[in-house]
């Protein structure tokens, strides 16, 4: 199953660790992906001052593989991934969107570019980074393609467990696709957390009360008001 790049397709299980770039900021951005020996496989760069929260995934030689960004304006937190550094529709590889507007646990449907009607997702991503519970499923919703877990994959990765996230990718899976989906899920979860904190500050309630509420995209911000073009 090669979706993005045949260089990153393996007939064997692949163990990776996604590293966060800040030990002091709890919501720091993800910065790199390491193999079991601590070697950098991918680099994750943010485009500063991008209104679309644009990120670029590069290989170890810093050659762009994917550009993914949040689509404005949408009620399902849709993200789109494009080949290389492109953001043109002709280079679209896949898109993701929340399976429903209101959720307790984030669940994203993944649609490949050729899946125009989006009646059924090609993949599904479910999970919460805080609990290290993130899983990528095939379109049947049952077959696990990749899964985050608690084990620190190798002692030579010199970072705290709090800032690395170990992922096991099943055999015959395009693991650059898995990495992109995990980063998108991280960004969606981070936006969800910020919204809850904003709600807590606005209502003067406790953190526990806010975090027990369902996740909803209603009334996110003025710039996220729904229009007829991007209301999916």
What's the CATH topology label?
A: Porin
β-sheet strand percentage: 25-35%
* Large-scale geometry: globular
Would you identify the CATH H-level superfamily? Answer: LURP1-related
Question: If helices are DSSP runs of H or I spanning 4 or more residues, what is the number of helices?
Answer: 2
Which CATH architecture? Beta Barrel
Characterization of this structure:
- The protein is of the alpha+beta class.
- It has a single domain, classed as LURP1-related (Porin).
- It has helices spanning 175-203, 207-211, and strands spanning 9-10, 14-20, 30-34, 40-46, 55-59, 64-70, 79-83, 92-98, 107-112, 123-128, 133-138, 144-149, 164-169, 173-174.
- The strands form two sheets. Strands 2-3-4-5-6-7-8-9-10-11-12-13 form a twelve-stranded antiparallel β-barrel. The protein has a two-stranded antiparallel sheet with strand order 1-14.
- The protein is globular.
- 31% of the residues are buried.
- The model is unreliable at 23-28, 207-214 and 217-231 (pLDDT under 50).
